[in-house]
Specification:
Blueprint (H helix, E strand, L loop, with lengths): L8 E3 L1 H13 L5 H19 L5 E6 L3 H15 L3 E6 L7 H10 L4 E4 L11 E5 L11 H12 L4 E4 L21 E5 L2 E2 L13 E5 L15 E3 L19 E5 L6 H13 L4 E6 L4 H7 L4 E4 L3 H10 L2 E4 L7 H12 L4 E3 L2 H8 L8 E3 L3 H8 L3 H6 L1 H12 L2 E4 L5 E3 L5 E3 L12 H14 L4 H19 L13 H8 L6
Parallel strand pairs: 1-8, 2-3, 2-5, 3-4, 5-6, 6-7, 7-9, 10-19, 11-12, 11-14, 12-13, 14-15, 15-16, 16-17
Antiparallel strand pairs: 1-10, 17-18, 18-19
Subunit structure: Homotetramer.
EC number: 4.2.1.136, 5.1.99.6
Cofactor: Mg(2+); K(+)
């Protein structure tokens, strides 16, 4: 397997096609040789992943992805496996036609897919229908085939990308293959790492097909995958003033829990001091549950101002509400010019009263909040999460974390990272409040907005994965606090 140093770089489909062309034009390779390497790589992954497989069925489309499938079928046949090929067309084009001819010389089983036929029995299915060549919903007959494959109990190996998944955006305009294993060729496609891709790709492997590093020279990746990171150990003479002072603002009537989670996450994230500006009726509960938080009851802007003067970084929004009280505190906080993290109702208020930020700012919207901030629908945002995250960062002059499966971190200059951790158990109340506090703590300890967002998202998601080892369903936001502390100190727990 060839993964190489490019495994954390993400590319658009057009960039990968340009790499294909470059391999042909500058390295003197043929398209058929690239296809043969892809088939060999995929077959090797199949054998490693399913060593007991003896009977496979390969579903081949008419394009190059189908050509990969025909050549894989030939390799499996030569290895003594029982192989059946189900094809969409008996008239593939280009190198795929040559690959089909090579398969037919084996004299093995090939049949056309008809909607009224049953799927072949096999230990493993291979999806070589469309790959990256499809950016629309599959036509009805092919959609029926995909649904039949998904409904079977047979595990699926997808070649390059599960058919039906947009490899650029991670969106599925129609039905898509649910793979157990996806082997991506030459370069990682950015859409395989976010949005609906999370439920389609299964185990995702990259094989660069043994191509030399010169192929990637002067080709700038569109995005990158996050790497694990944390702050360095503190100096032995450090004091709490060195680690910054976070002021968390929120907790309207009935939402004391949100601002407590935010404040406690800021403490666990390493902030030296954390104050909370909230409704006065929340003070007793906050002081009893977490006395390390310096909780203050504020009625309005005048009482908030004294707290703002002492703070280094603001965390605004958890439980804030959009009423007169919350709006007044929000406006005062933003007008202070302090570095801040904005979440929840802090974002909803920003959608009503847009502004660009001069001081370092991190916005952490989920798709619904992102839609309001952009004046679009949630479907618009999810259709292309990369474009949405970048548009938000440019519009508001802030670093943006677009939350969801494969959270994206974008800055106003177009840089973008993708989070590879996290799990469905984190889709529960309070997780966003924790993230706000963690990022604010990192800002308070001297990180730039970009580094604080990237590191904070990574720590938060990795803590969620550790906490989910006892099961995803029923995972609580507060379950992340202990692993968050360990990870923040560079302690990896088995």
């Amino acid at each position: 397997m060839h993964a190489a140093k490019h495994h954390r770089h993400l590319y658009t489909v057009e960039q990968v096609r340009a790499l294909d062309r470059r391999a042909i034009d500058e390295l003197g390779m043929t398209g058929f040789e690239l296809m043969s390497r892809a088939a060999a790589a995929a077959f090797a992954h199949l054998c490693r992943h399913w060593p007991q497989a003896r009977h496979i069925a390969v579903f081949c489309g008419p394009g190059n992805n189908g050509g990969d499938g025909y050549l894989l079928a030939s390799l499996a046949h030569d290895a003594g496996m029982m192989v059946e090929v189900v094809e969409l067309s008996d008239e593939p084009h280009g190198d795929a036609a040559r690959a089909r001819d090579a398969w037919q010389r084996h004299g093995a089983s090939t049949r056309r897919w008809q909607p009224d036929t049953t799927l072949p029995r096999a230990d493993t299915y291979v999806d070589a229908l469309y790959g990256t060549g499809l950016n629309r919903a599959p036509e009805a007959a092919i959609a029926d085939l995909i649904e039949c494959i998904n409904a079977s109990a047979t595990p699926v190996l997808a070649l390059d990308v599960p058919s039906g998944l947009n490899a650029d955006t991670g969106h599925c305009p129609g039905v898509a293959i649910r793979a157990a294993l996806t082997v991506s060729f030459i370069a990682a496609k950015r859409g395989a790492h976010t949005g609906q891709a999370a439920s389609k790709v299964g185990v995702l492997q990259l094989d660069t097909l043994g191509l030399p590093d010169v192929l990637w020279q002067n080709v700038h990746a569109d995005a990158s995958l996050l790497e694990p990171s944390c702050l360095p150990p503190r100096e032995r003479d450090a004091h709490k003033g060195d680690a910054g002072h976070v002021l968390a603002i929120g907790g309207d009537h009935g939402t004391a829990g949100a601002i407590r989670l935010c404040g406690e996450a800021a403490l666990r994230g390493g902030a030296g001091l954390v104050s909370v500006a909230t409704r006065i009726e929340n003070l007793m509960a906050l002081n009893a549950a977490r006395p390390e938080l310096m909780a203050h009851g504020v009625h309005g802007p005048q009482e908030l101002q004294a707290l703002l003067d002492r703070a280094d970084v603001l965390a605004v929004g958890p439980g804030l509400g959009q009423g007169a009280w919350g709006h007044a505190l929000w406006l005062t906080a933003l007008d202070s010019g302090k570095p801040l993290v904005l979440d929840a109702d802090g974002l909803n208020l920003l959608a009503r009263e847009p502004r660009r930020f001069a001081a370092p700012a991190v916005l952490t919207p989920h798709p619904g909040e992102a839609a309001r901030l952009l004046g679009k629908t949630i479907a618009d945002v999810q259709w292309d999460r990369f474009a949405s995250a970048r548009a938000l960062a440019q519009r508001y002059g802030a670093v943006v974390v677009l939350k969801g499966a494969g959270s994206l971190i974008a800055d106003p200059n177009g840089r973008l990272d993708v989070c590879i951790w996290g799990n469905p158990g984190m889709a529960s109340g309070g997780m966003g409040d924790l993230l706000t506090g963690v990022i604010a703590a990192l800002l308070a300890q001297g990180c730039s907005a970009w580094d604080a967002a990237r590191m904070g998202v990574g720590l938060h998601a990795r803590a969620g994965d550790i906490a989910a080892r006892n099961g995803e369903r029923g995972l609580l936001a507060s379950d992340l606090l202990e692993p968050l502390r360990a990870l923040s100190n560079g302690i990896e727990r088995d």
